[in-house]
Amino acid sequence: MSAREAGVSESVMDLAALAEIVERFAGKKIVLFGDFVADAFQFGEISRVSREAPVLILRHRGTNVVPGGGANAANNLAALGAKVFPVTVVGEDSAGGALAESFRAIGAETSGIFRAKDWPTPTKTRFLAGWAHTVSQQVLRVDHEPAGPPPENILSKILAKLRGKLRSADGLAISDYGFGVVSPAAVSAALRGSQRKSVVTLDARYRLDSYAGVGITAATPNEAELESLHHTTIGRDMNELERCSNATLKKMGLQSLLVTRGKDGMALFERAEKKVTHIPVHGSDQAVDVTGAGDTVLAAFTLALASGASALEAAQVANIAGGLVVMKRGTAVATRSELLAAIRTEASGGAS
């Protein structure tokens, strides 16, 4: 039986069409509803081994706080040319202030970024160490997480803001990292009140299938999340990948499911096509840093769908964007100009 007869195909790209899709990104209105995370990076040089314990002493040289989690997805949407409307909550702390300021600095509307008392902004602090003239390596990560979801009064304000922003939006991207800002009930309530039929995408770290029936168009889980959802191991077992993906596609009523698979690229499952399309990784399979790559994929996939791309075209665009961002250190974005340049380089035969 051929791959086509078996419902399996390899991705073939129309690069001119992909470039046209990316050109249409500019000005698209995308609402990002999600858990904002502060990604903090503490840089330093290794000075010596401590006398107190067998640990290295890091001489601090600088700190950088950048948008992570849903904030990184929103930042990627803006970098790709969208007019992004973040709807979220952060704490009344320095991390929350830094996140809000980062979006004001790029001209994004911040009326949907609510501040909550006694609820800390989720923060992931990475310590990077190295010698002079060497590349710093991550040696430790410390996570500061809230003990529960934000206060109910804040969640009510978020829902009202979400409903308002959806009236004029071309798409809704949901980034659920499990910190309680986002919930299936809130998404369902917001979409029920919306008269505008727009693209709705989901990236959920946990409980992906809890969003079944709420109106999600497409989801972008990674392979590990899919394994956790189905209590299985996929590895090189393509039959298991297809079983889990098709079951998720059906249960959630999705039009498409894009599974990111690290160095093995992506697998796109479409309800209408009843097949899986395997998309090889773009560029090098030796990633420099995969931090936040899933956020970039969500942003590019959502924006492409909102710009009229088919699910396959959107997946191909997202694959290229993801390939660009994993070659950058730290939490990073892929810009629209970088994405267009990569597509045009590929079209001219400059990339394998």
- Give the distance, in angstroms, between the N- and C-terminal Cα atoms: 29 Å
Rg (CA only): 20 Å
- Contiguous low-pLDDT stretches (5 residues minimum) are 1-6
Specify the overall morphology.
globular
Into which percentage range does the β-strand content fall? 25-35%
Mean pLDDT: 91
Biggest sheet strand order reads 1-14-13-12-11-10-9-2-5-6
SSE pattern, N- to C-terminal = EHEEEHEHEEEHEHEEHHEEEHHH
The biggest sheet amounts to:
10 strands, mixed
Number of helices: 10
Mind explaining what this structure looks like?
With 352 residues, this protein is of the alpha/beta class. The chain has ten helices and 14 strands. The protein has a ten-stranded mixed β-sheet with strand order 1-14-13-12-11-10-9-2-5-6, with helices on both faces. A four-stranded mixed β-sheet has the order 4-3-7-8. A hairpin with a 6-residue loop joins strand 3 (36-49) and strand 4 (56-69). Helix 1 runs antiparallel to helix 10 (336-347), helix 4 (152-166) packs parallel to helix 5 (184-192) and helix 8 (293-306) packs antiparallel against helix 9 (311-325). The longest helix has 15 residues, at 152-166. The radius of gyration is 20 Å and the shape is globular.
